[in-house]
Hints:
The protein is α+β, with helices and mostly antiparallel strands. It folds into two domains: about 10-75; about 90-150, Chitinase A, domain 3 (Roll). Helices cover about 40% and strands about 20% of the residues. It has helices spanning about 10-35, 45-75, 120-125; strands spanning about 90-95, 100-105, 115, 135-140, 140-150. It has a five-stranded mixed beta sheet. Helix 1 (about 10-35) runs antiparallel to helix 2 (about 45-75). Keywords: Coiled coil, Elongation factor, Protein biosynthesis, Transcription, Transcription regulation. This is GreA/GreB family elongation factor.
Amino acid sequence: MTGEPRPIGGEARRALEQELADLRAERATVAATLGDSDSPGDAADQADELQRANQLERLDARITRITERLRESADAGPPSTDAVGVGSTVTVRFTDGTVETVQISEMAEGRAQTLVTADSPLGRALLGRRAGDTVEYDAPGGRSTVSVLSLGDPREGT
């Protein structure tokens, strides 16, 4: 990772930690299937062994990236509560009156319904905004407006 350390929100951190645990378990399973015998085997056995070795390389690379990202976020400290950034938890009100608390994330995570990626239309519109700001953005259904009610996880105050 390059640049200054970037914070990460709690939900995104938990998602990365879960992915890391899953990858480590998968790596252990794949590593256990690699043969350590000296017999060369047939071409199919060698091809299968090479495929598993390549899979280990991909798993190791992803494990390293996630570990570095988690370490970087720890160095960055908590997300800012002054202006919206990656890792921020933001409570917003849509024009239909719906209020939602979302977390700005650098990546999509399928099982996390409240994550908004920083490069999505809503995420881009919210970056750098402060509580009280109202912003317009291009949503899939057309132009939308959202008001920033607060920054920070509302559950932290309880």
